[in-house]
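Quick look at the format.
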Amino acid sequence: MCKKILLSLVLCGQLTLLLAQSREEQKIRQIMAKQELAWNRFDLEGFMEGYWHSDSLRFIGSKGLTFGWQNTLDNYKRSYPNPDAMGTLKFTILSVELLSGKSAFVIGKWQLTRKQDLLSGHYTLLWRKIKGKWVIVADHSS
């Protein structure tokens, strides 16, 4: 009888943990969906809401490492100065791994469809929950 109760408690604990993880994963997925929508309406500031608004934000792209939210936004504005340059963004999330209650690792693909071409690549994102909000603290996109 004790073994059955203990097994039930362990299974309930695991189910609770899975439900909490899936809620946190959904929050991250929702933020990325909002980023995609913001990009596609030519709203770079809205797109950047998913990032940590800090000088410690790290973005690694084809031009190397950039530190800071403002520097990252400025780079986006230079690289994508108008709606034609921005095109239509599509994220495909391949995996979300919750590392703890306050950090997550996301791997995925991005695709940018423009009139003149189609660009695509992959990303790895390190997320942290800061002051109750999930934000990207490091982005490596290539």
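Next, a different chain entirely:
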Amino acid sequence: MNFPDYKHIQIESDGKTLTVKLNRPELHNAFNEDMIEEVTNAFEIINEREERLVVIKGNGKSFCAGADLNWMRKMKDYTEEENLRDAKGLDAMFYAIYTSKKPVICFVHGGVFGGGTGILATSDIVICHRDTKFGFTEVKLGLVPAVISSYLVRKVNYPALREFCITGSFFDAKTAKEMGLVNYVEDDENAMENRLNILKKQLFSAGPKAIEETKKLISYQLENTMEKRREMAPKVIAKVRISKEGQEGITAFLEKKKANFVIDL
């Protein structure tokens, strides 16, 4: 399935990895309703493609500065109903990334503020440059981090989330890693690329269906009671063990050979 011609994002593929580049560099990749719709549409298509990994990057000086000021000016005059429809569109974008069948890695630099942090919260792994600056800055505008909070609470530790959401203050890469928003902090772009290549090797040595099922499993575990989790988990492993990929992986392990789903870089 091919991608349409997008205005605000760029899509590149090497056959194994899809790179989604936020492409409003003159605005530090701040998003408006059009960019949100494009990202949502792209991730719907991504689920149907053969590539095994998605990497999200930002063109220009920043990864994503949050909401576009012109978009915010329009929202200021929206009715509550119009604001609700608009906010649901933003959530649809985050949810499309969060529920992606493929692993999603964010490759982060510059500034990541407001809704931009929501993209990080919905991804699986975040690699960032050590000079990156972050902030849940909504309260400084008299607003709340409402839509991104659904995803931040799944990733960021509670004391840090509470502090930085109510103060709106900026924080650095070291703090972002300590709170759980970021997985890896690297000194320069070469180190970031090296980290990305290490992760690619790890992910490409695993079964793609197994990764997909594991992502769903973890989400289910976070969202349900212990009783429901215990009921569901045995069913998942029973189904996966008899799947084509599961049988291939077990056989390869027992026979000490490489599974067919492994991709060499």
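Strands lie at 9-13, 17-22, 53-58, 104-108, 111-113, 125-129, 133-135, 170-172, 184-186.

See the schema section for token definitions.
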